Amino acid sequence: MGYYDREIAELRESLTESLQTANYRALLEVRLTLSRLEEMENPSTPEAPKLSLSPAPTRNVVYYLRWADRVKIGTTKNLRNRTRDIYFDEVLAAEPGGRVLEAQMHRKFASLKIPEYREWFQAGPELVNHAAEVRSKHGAPFKVGKL
Fold first, then answer.
1. pTM for this entry
2. Which of 23, 73, 93, 116 could form a disulfide with 134 if both were Cys (CB 3.0 to 4.6 A apart)?
3. Which candidate, 79, 80, 85, 88, places its Cα nearest to that of 46?
4. Which regions of the chain does DSSP assign to beta strands (E)?
């Protein structure tokens, strides 16, 4: 096998691995979308909470959103606006802080990280308990309920 033949074989192998990874991620996205559609079409499934019309907080916060068996740890200046862009079941908690605190929390719960999603973690007991402690210390981030 010549030099170029080896290069071509390595490129083919690399492309195959990349395609498999892309297909896996696309499949996950399709499953997630189908799950969301099924939840919207199934009247026995409760709707995602809608936010109240109280004024939006504009301080930097680190938030904990639960969706099914996962928790998103993120940061924002306007939690109400941010939650409009994300599908979730419950706002677990929010605490004052920015990217530094968010990074600390990502490191703290790294063992629960869901690899395919940047800020999503498995809702393990330690993470859920932490969010409960944050909520106990800082109160409810804002009132969640139907408009």
1. 0.58
2. 93
3. 88
4. 61-67, 70-76, 90-96, 120-122
